[in-house]
Design a protein that fits this description.
about 290 residues, alpha/beta, globular
Length: about 290
């Protein structure tokens, strides 16, 4: 109810004010979930303020989006706390979600003049995935149980996973993995296709991938807690916060509204059912009475 009243008051305040021609630019990385979260941000601003919204989705990976927001080419985009901690801030891996949240908020403000807004409500960790038939045949449920078989398997990873401090090199070192060939590098959208067609035997996907519940695959437990928490959060330029507080207050109404199960289903509607991301998001936000 409080959240609804906030949205209503924001609408009244902006409706009574002068016409606005200013624009909020919403960005995203180059995969489905990011575009879905970007749509949530964009549609909330459009519904509850008189600001214009420009979408710049599928910009690229973490580093491109970081440079885009620092250069002022975008005002806000969704990011993940573990990625911010390790890939951008270059901190060691930390497993306490509250500590990670505290560090990224403090340092993003101090170093980049960026505000980290409250989490959407889900954690999207990396998921190490193998074919379901292989998991059943070799009785593999955990990453450590895959080690004896890794010499017979070739992995496939996205380009960023190979470069990140919380990616390939640390995973191999932590678990003692020894693969039968060098990793095959590919776009994220091709990982599961390559896995199921046996071009590769193990991939690093995401816990909220919409196709995980559709394909015959197995997500292996990270039994050595290698990966840090990856809470999905909007990050916004402090200048944007100062100039358009009504937009930021509106984005914050998304805090805690998206569970891991809901995010996976939204991704499936786009990737599996081939629905338009904007329509999927509109239906989701409407069902939650946020529009």
């Amino acid at each position: 109810m409080k959240r609804f009243l906030l949205l209503a008051s924001l609408s009244v305040l902006t409706a009574c004010g002068p016409p606005r021609s200013r624009t909020i630019v919403v960005g995203s990385k180059n995969f489905t979930e990011q575009a879905v979260l970007g749509e949530m941000i964009a549609q909330m601003i459009q519904a509850h303020t008189h600001l214009n919204v420009e979408r710049r989705f599928y910009l690229g990976g973490t580093y491109i989006c970081q440079q885009s927001i620092l250069a002022g080419r975008i005002d806000v985009y969704p990011e993940y706390t573990g990625t911010m901690l390790t890939a951008i801030l270059k901190h060691p891996i930390e497993h306490d979600a509250a500590k990670v949240d505290h560090v990224v908020k403090r340092e993003y403000a101090a170093r980049f003049n960026l505000d980290v807004l409250p989490p959407f409500g889900f954690d999207n960790t990396f998921a190490i995935v193998i074919r379901g038939a292989d998991a059943r045949q070799d009785h593999i449920r955990k990453i450590s149980e895959a080690v004896p078989f890794s010499v017979r398997r070739r992995p496939g990873f996205g380009y960023e996973f190979m470069e990140r401090p919380d990616g390939y090199s640390g995973l191999v070192k932590t678990y003692g993995l020894r693969f039968g060939g060098p990793p095959r590098l590919m776009d994220l959208g091709l990982l599961y296709r390559a896995l199921l067609s046996k071009q590769v035997d193990l991939v690093a996907g995401s816990a909220t991938d919409g196709l995980l519940d559709v394909f015959d695959v197995a997500v292996l437990e990270d039994d050595k807690d290698y990966f840090p928490p990856y809470q999905a959060v909007p990050i916004v330029r402090e200048q944007t916060l100062d100039e358009h507080p009504e937009a930021v207050n509106t984005i914050e109404c998304l805090a805690g509204e998206v569970s891991e199960k809901e995010m996976r289903h939204l991704n499936y509607e786009v990737d599996g059912l081939h629905r338009d991301a904007g329509k999927v998001v509109h239906d989701f936000l409407s069902a939650k009475h946020l529009l």
